[in-house]
Amino acid sequence: xxxxxxxxxxxxxxxxxxxxxxxxxxxxxxxxxxxxxxxxxxxxxxxxxxxxxxxxxxxxxxxxxxxxxxxxxxxxxxxxxxxxxxxxxxxxxxxxxxxxxxxxxxxxxxxxxxxxx
Amino acid sequence: xxxxxxxxxxxxxxxxxxxxxxxxxxxxxxxxxxxxxxxxxxxxxxxxxxxxxxxxxxxxxxxxxxxxxxxxxxxxxxxxxxxxxxxxxxxxxxxxxxxxxxxxxxxxxx
Lengths: 117, 110
Description:
The complex is a heterodimer.
Chain A: E1 3-7, E2 10-12, E3 18-25, E4 34-39, E5 45-51, E6 58-60, E7 68-73, E8 78-83, E9 92-98, E10 106-107, E11 111-115
Parallel strand pairs in A: 2-11
Antiparallel strand pairs in A: 1-3, 3-8, 4-5, 4-9, 5-6, 7-8, 9-10, 9-11
Chain B: E1 9-12, E2 18-23, E3 34-39, E4 46-49, E5 63-68, E6 71-76, E7 85-93, E8 98-101, E9 105-109
């Protein structure tokens, strides 16, 4: 059974850093591209970042470009999102998503990040 | 302002049919496949349609997808109260080199 479990969220002051993790199980993690998607309170879904199955290709939303880094460790079946210089508008539930566009799409349950002093 | 445009809300009575539109551009919907997700608050979004008009196993044929040019449409027939949720279209935008979501449509089953 496919499982994606996010962790690492919490309350962080503006300007600080946070690293989200997503532990994958139930499928061959190294064969799939992965994404981070977020939803701010009262807002719609917003794509954050993409990483190819082998980690060689990465893309970012303009809203996080230069502040966030997506990475993966295929040996540990884990996806990461390093977020720096956090802003209040980064407050959201962050979802780890397998192969977002296509038949293989699967979402985690999400992890809340709150940026507040 | 989302790259893909959806109506903020739609509504219909139980048993009726509703359609949700999603319009984009040649670099998004015009040349790339679209997926549709159903999202209930507090839960993981659920894949309803992929590759514009295909249903994953387990999704009833009450849900359908279609495409015309730079627009796609999600159709839901035989509406049930359990269909009340937010619905999102999503695709790749070749010009932006980014994934783009529609703003989401809230479905109310009256």
